[in-house]
């Protein structure tokens, strides 16, 4: 196919949906107006483990406006059939809503109150008296028994460690983190006979919500429509369906009315997932020049007792640095908690926090510059698979970053720079994230008026899908941005992978480009075969389209518009389903890379850490929209600042209660915590990854942030803190 000129891709377009969002016109899940809607409020268990012995709903049912109270005592049995191909757990290993009396974690839904107003439902939920036979929950990752580990080995790491002239043996602990999106999770469910329509906050209308409800109710997926045009942030919390979505649908079926269920902020902490806490022991060995000989990784992370959650925490230890000997063991530890889920930079962020902190320790111990140490351990190929890298420009990230950050001015000695009461330090870390792609489709329609409509069942949780897809479509169709509309978030649209794992641009973008290429070709074919067209008889490959006008590549005067050729041929529109799928087997190792630099000031008397500036340099392939890329990169840094210094979900071991389930006590970075953040993208593309040449950015930009800050804290203070977040008390 002809390569169209790129005029929209690569330009800093503003969000096309920005005005809708800032003027309150964007409709999020709970905003959809629904006639006759009822309101639901969930009653959460107030014990961390045990059994429900009674549910007294008499006071609740007597409350004005309350219509129904549903618990395991009166809920219908739900089929919970298998649902392959989704992010949701298999039926034999999952929580089943209101199907038994067991309490598996503090906050588990034990009943729902349905009422004519939100307030009545909330008050009704307070009036339900639930009695329990409580048991002692187990919530301590450090002491609870673990599942059988997932293992990996190459060489003989233990022998190589024993023989290494330089050795480290370090244990790190990372806190549980919660996504805390601005928009709370919410669902509106409406049954029309056997057909179910839901408006849901989700990152995957098809594989998340639609498949879950089909599995729970044992009905065909085609009987369920899921609508989700706007998502107010998710960071992974919408990658699978949670109990409240089932509860809304169940309550709607039981009452015969549409039901709206919005989780309270507090309920997000146990009603959706979280980034699991880790305990991670890393041993490393090197020679005296800093060449790594071995690493062992002993990793424990929390999961629930009723579902097993794992993430890609092993990959960085296998491929980020060159070394002959690696041994890894990754164990999940089942606790009396709700199930974790991926959170921005999943797995990689947790592994990089450990590995990149340890690399800094090794550099210090050897007296080698941290960048130089990393360069000495750059692999020539992916040592986990033997595959060549599609693109790996990590050295360039280091060099550009060092230059732009002013790394040369750094005095290596820790605690050597002061600014009044503040100790000043700089640190850096590498970032890496898998370039994921998956099959996707998009419907493309070119209208007789020369405008185009592109639709795909993907999502935009704030990353800019609404804007980036029209950029791709505009170029491939030869239209201007303002004549292309993109719609998403409806399970009736062509299917896509989850809006996660940084794969939307690569996967959906490539499907959009494919569909637009095909429709453009249809129009060109119509013209060259039309005796009345000035383009008649020209080779279609020699025709390009600009601003809706097809013309000969070598003779711009010879041409006509889409409108003209469609009108003359009596065509109302041209349309096609575009699709793209990655090859079944990768021949290349594909990752995005980055180098993150941080400068911190630590109050010498109070232990307060302030980030002064941060720079990230990224090898992420083609950047479709530099403005939205900055929005992602800076947002990723903010998340990493949180993980390094602030974010920590705290559980009370006595009863499994989350004690800081609110935004006053769960600290996230605010404007005062965020100073000078800057991102640079290496110019280029990855031709092996996908037709657009993108490698994905959203996850990558969180990875490496926390260790860069931790390394800067060490440089400022001479203190190594291996428990995250690094709080003031740890530095006193
Ligand atoms: Mo991202 S953790 O896949 O939303």
UniProtKB/TrEMBL annotation:
Signal peptide: none annotated. Residues 23-136 form the Aldehyde oxidase/xanthine dehydrogenase a/b hammerhead domain. InterPro entries: Ald_Oxase/Xan_DH_a/b, Ald_Oxase/Xan_DH_a/b_sf, Ald_Oxase/xanthine_DH-like, AldOxase/xan_DH_MoCoBD1, AldOxase/xan_DH_MoCoBD2, AldOxase/xan_DH_Mopterin-bd_sf. This is Xanthine dehydrogenase family protein molybdopterin-binding subunit. It comes from Amycolatopsis balhimycina DSM 5908. GO terms for molecular function: iron ion binding; oxidoreductase activity. It comes from the Bacteria. Keywords: Molybdenum, Oxidoreductase.
């Amino acid at each position: 196919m002809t390569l169209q000129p790129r005029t929209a891709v690569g330009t800093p377009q503003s969000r096309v949906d920005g005005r809708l969002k800032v003027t309150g016109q964007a409709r999020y899940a709970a905003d959809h107006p629904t006639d006759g809607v009822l309101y639901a409020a969930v009653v959460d268990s107030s014990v961390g483990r045990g059994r429900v012995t009674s549910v007294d709903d008499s006071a609740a049912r007597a409350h004005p406006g309350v219509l129904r109270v549903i618990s395991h005592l009166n809920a219908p049995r739900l089929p919970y059939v298998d649902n392959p191909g989704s992010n949701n757990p298999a039926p034999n290993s999952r929580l089943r809503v209101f199907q038994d009396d067991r309490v598996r974690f503090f906050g588990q839904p034990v009943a729902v109150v349905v009422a004519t107003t939100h307030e009545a439902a909330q008050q009704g939920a307070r009036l339900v008296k639930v009695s329990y036979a409580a048991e002692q929950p187990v919530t301590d990752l450090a002491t609870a028994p673990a599942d059988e580990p997932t293992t990996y080995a190459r060489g003989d790491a233990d022998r190589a460690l024993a023989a290494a002239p330089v050795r480290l043996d370090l244990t790190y602990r990372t806190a549980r983190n919660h996504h805390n999106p601005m928009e709370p999770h919410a669902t509106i469910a409406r049954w029309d006979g056997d057909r179910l329509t839901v408006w849901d906050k989700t990152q995957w209308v098809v594989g998340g919500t639609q498949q879950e409800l089909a599995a729970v109710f044992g009905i065909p997926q085609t009987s369920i429509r899921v609508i989700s045009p706007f998502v107010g942030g998710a960071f992974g919390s919408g990658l699978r369906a949670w109990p409240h979505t089932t509860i809304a649908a169940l309550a709607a079926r039981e009452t015969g009315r549409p039901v709206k269920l919005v989780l309270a902020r507090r309920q997000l902490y146990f009603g959706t997932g979280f980034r699991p806490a880790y305990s991670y022991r890393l041993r490393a060995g090197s020679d005296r020049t800093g060449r790594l000989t071995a690493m062992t990784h002993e990793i424990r992370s929390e999961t629930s007792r009723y579902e097993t959650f794992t993430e890609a925490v092993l990959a960085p230890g296998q491929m980020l640095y060159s070394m002959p000997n690696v041994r890894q063991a990754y164990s999940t530890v089942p606790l009396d908690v709700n199930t974790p889920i991926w959170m921005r930079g999943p797995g990689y962020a947790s592994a990089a926090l450990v590995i990149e902190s340890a690399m800094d320790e090794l550099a210090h111990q050897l007296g080698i510059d941290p960048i130089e140490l990393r360069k000495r351990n750059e692999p020539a190929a992916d040592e986990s698979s033997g595959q060549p890298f599609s693109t790996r420009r990590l050295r360039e990230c280091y060099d550009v970053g060092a230059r732009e950050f002013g790394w040369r001015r750094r005095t290596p000695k820790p605690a050597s720079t002061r600014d009044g009461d503040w100790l000043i330090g700089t640190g850096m870390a590498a970032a890496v994230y898998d370039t994921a792609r998956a099959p996707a489709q998009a419907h493309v329609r070119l209208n007789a008026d020369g405008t185009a409509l592109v639709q795909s069942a993907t999502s935009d949780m704030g990353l800019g899908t609404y804007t980036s897809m029209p950029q791709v479509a505009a170029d491939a169709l030869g239209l201007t941005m303002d004549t292309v509309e993109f719609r998403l978030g409806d399970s009736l649209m062509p299917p896509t992978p989850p809006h996660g794992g940084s794969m939307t641009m690569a996967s959906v973008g490539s499907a959009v480009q494919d569909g637009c290429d095909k429709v453009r070709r249809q129009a060109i074919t119509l013209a060259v075969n039309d005796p009345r067209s000035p383009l008649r008889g020209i080779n279609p490959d020699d025709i390009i389209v600009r601003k809706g006008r097809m013309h000969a590549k070598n003779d711009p005067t010879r041409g006509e518009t889409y409108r003209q050729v469609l009108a003359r041929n009596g065509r109302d529109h041209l349309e096609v389903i575009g699709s793209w799928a990655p090859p079944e087997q990768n021949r290349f190792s594909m990752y995005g890379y980055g180098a993150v630099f941080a400068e911190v000031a630590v109050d010498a008397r109070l232990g307060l850490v302030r980030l002064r500036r941060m720079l990230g340099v990224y090898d992420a392939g083609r950047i479709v929209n530099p403005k939205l890329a900055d929005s992602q990169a800076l947002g990723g840094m903010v998340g990493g600042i949180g993980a390094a210094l602030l974010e920590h979900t705290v559980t009370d071991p006595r009863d499994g209660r989350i004690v800081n389930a609110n935004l006053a006590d769960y600290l996230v970075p605010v404007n005062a915590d965020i100073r000078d953040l800057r991102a640079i993208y290496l110019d280029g593309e990855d031709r092996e990854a996908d037709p657009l040449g993108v490698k994905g950015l959203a996850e990558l930009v969180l990875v490496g942030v926390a260790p860069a800050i931790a390394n800067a804290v060490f440089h400022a203070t001479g203190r190594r803190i291996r428990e995250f977040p690094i709080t003031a008390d740890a530095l006193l």
